[in-house]
Design a protein that fits this description.
This protein has 313 residues and is of the alpha/beta class. The protein starts with a strand and ends with a helix. The protein has two domains: 2-179, NAD(P)-binding Rossmann-like Domain (Rossmann fold), CATH 3.40.50.720; 183-312, Orthogonal Bundle (N-(1-d-carboxylethyl)-l-norvaline Dehydrogenase, domain 2). Helix 6 packs across helix 12 (292-312), helix 8 crosses helix 11 and helix 11 (277-287) packs across helix 12 (292-312). It contains twelve helices and twelve strands.
Length: 313
């Protein structure tokens, strides 16, 4: 199988390094991390240690005018929600006619948009593996989670999904094909809605939320509002106890992780707040469900984003 991975952040690095021994992998990257990957290969640390030499994986850099690959069976989008459109423009010409696209990132509304523009070619994926970007082109695998694959918004498992599931199993990435993808995407989003903005604004690793009652309660309140919106939209969801347990389990499993939104804030990059808590506010307005806590935290994170934008001018 020929796999394209767009993005070489934490999840993109994990996927590329784990899959390369089992498939022909092409990585669409850019910037210093991409240059390190071309020159030195990729390194996986943490739960599983593995090194890829430069010849073991093909990295395509626009800065070096590398030609795009062709004949890709699957494209994995390991980018931020606001980067998906540009990622598709870059990777779509490399995909075979019957090839599929899978989005591995966070957020609400992204898979819906992909499905509208590329009907019948989208696999919804929820990823709960924990990973962090290391030095050079290294990635630290910090938490062994799972990958849920399904048709959007629901439907039977397709042959393409089964083939991708088999590949992911060989790479020890714990994939499971499901028929209710929408509910799994929403359930994963609830975790990000509860954890990411709280840790980003507090400037703490995930595990600190377990030590600070005020932070944990803030996150759970954000999640409860989002669940109210989900119920109004008719989305199948866990019960409140299950949802709270999900949050605590993830915080425990990824206690030393710095969530992606905290990393974005620290590095002065645009966050995904609009695709998470901001999306809850927008959907709540459509459904007539008040979401004051999500509106407040969205405004606070947007203010940080705006401050970084002004600093970059």
């Amino acid at each position: 199988m020929r796999i394209g991975i767009v993005g070489l952040g934490a999840i993109g690095g994990l996927m590329a390094t784990a899959l390369a021994p089992h498939a022909e992998v092409h990585v669409f990257a850019r910037g210093p991390r991409g240059v390190h990957a071309v020159a030195e290969g990729l390194v996986l640390e943490g739960l599983f240690a593995h090194r890829l030499q430069p010849e073991d994986v093909t990295v395509h850099l626009p800065e070096l005018d590398h030609p795009a690959p062709s004949g890709l069976d699957v494209v994995l989008l390991a980018v931020k929600a606001h980067q998906v459109e540009a990622a598709m423009e870059r990777a779509l010409p490399s995909l075979v006619n019957e090839g599929v696209v899978a989005y591995l990132g966070n957020g609400l509304g992204v898979v819906e948009s992909l499905q509208r523009h590329h009907p019948g070619r989208v696999v919804a994926v929820t990823c709960t593996h924990g990973a962090m970007v290391g030095e050079g082109a290294s990635t630290r695998w910090t938490g062994h989670g799972s990958l849920m694959l399904g048709s959007w918004p629901s439907g039977p498992v397709t042959p393409a999904m089964m083939a991708l599931e088999a590949l992911l199993k060989r790479a020890n990435l714990n994939p499971v094909c499901v028929e209710n993808a929408r509910s799994h995407v929403w359930r994963k989003a609830l975790l990000n809605i509860a954890i990411n903005p709280v840790c980003a604004l507090a400037g703490v690793e995930n595990g600190i939320m377990l030590e600070r009652h005020d932070l944990l309660e803030s996150g759970l309140e954000l999640m409860r509002e989002a669940m109210d919106v989900g119920h109004a939209l008719g989305i199948e969801q866990p019960n409140p106890v299950e949802a709270a347990t999900d949050v605590i389990d993830v915080l425990t499993a990824t206690a030393t992780n710095r969530c992606s939104m905290l990393e974005d804030v620290r590095r002065g990059r645009r966050t995904e707040i609009d695709a998470l808590n901001g999306a809850v506010v927008d959907l709540g307005e459509e459904a007539g469900v008040p979401t004051p806590r999500n509106a407040q935290i969205t405004a606070l994170v947007r203010a940080v984003d705006a401050d970084h934008s002004r600093s970059a001018l």
